Amino acid sequence: MCDATAFDSVERTTAHAPDRDAGATNCDNPMTMQRPPPPAPPPPMSLFAEGAARRATMVASAREGYATTLHAHDCDMLFVPVAGRFDVIGAQGETMQPAPGDFVWFAAGAAHATAAQTLRQTHVAVYIDPDFWSTALRAQGVQQPLQGMRAGSAALAMLSQKMLEVARSGPGIDSQNGAVYCGALIMEAARLSANPLLQERRTPARMVAQSLAESISADLSQSLSLDAFAARHWLSRRQVERSFRAEFGMSPLAFQQIQRADRARYLLATTSDSVLSVAQQVGWESGSYLARVLQKTWALTAAEIRAAKHDRP
What we know:
It is a single chain. By secondary structure, the chain is of the alpha+beta class. It has helices at 47-55, 130-139, 154-169, 175-192, 204-218, 226-232, 237-248, 252-270, 275-281, 287-298, 302-311, and strands at 11-12, 56-61, 76-83, 86-90, 95-96, 102-106, 112-116, 122-128, 148-151. It has 2 domains: 11-17 and 45-192, Regulatory protein AraC (Jelly Rolls, Sandwich), CATH 2.60.120.280; 204-311, Orthogonal Bundle (Arc Repressor Mutant, subunit A), CATH 1.10.10.60. The chain has 11 helices and 9 strands.
């Protein structure tokens, strides 16, 4: 297992799957007492996910003012921003500025320092045994890629969000799904490592799009006011919408709806707040509208989401 202790975070989970207790008990008189049937085994994981459970560690952080000094790990590292902007500096002074939509790969032993350029940030880091990372690269047909920053993908963004949800659930909760997501993220990052490195610094249009995304995510209960945002940046509403769509592949309103739905599902799974209260916390006025969103997005009801929480080992 690689060493991830140099990473300072407030939320942490690993891909390790805990041992399951078979639940069998000894009976003094087997003729009169029946042993309860064993619980159904969990769905089998893929061989790669099993490998991720043993040879990769995922850490998530939402600490404000996040920064590290120059350091190195004895394992490979994938750094995936979820919210906020970052400066990542290598040992030779090279600077990268990853933001949501990018990821950074550092090989084992590569020194680097990371600092958030926004007060609020969220990111996922995956620490991978070097041999396991090499296996993922070979599986994707990628040979000797250069380390550094690359463009991500919709799949990578979705998997990092799923891993963040697992991290928020706490140690031992949903660990098997954590291993599956971790393995899938490693494979997707390996596939993307065939792409060229991103060399350019943030363009003004990209900075505006990321600023709007951060503004939306910071307070989901607020309505979206593109006109006011555009005025603060001396831009037209059309310019803001075009920059945002180029960066995130969707309109600002669609982005807000996705963020609201994800947050509402998290609140339903982790709190006892009423459906109406959860809806209002994410900016929707009625519980019935939230119910329709849950059904349309995941084909689930609020009760089913909460029941799944209680069914976890």
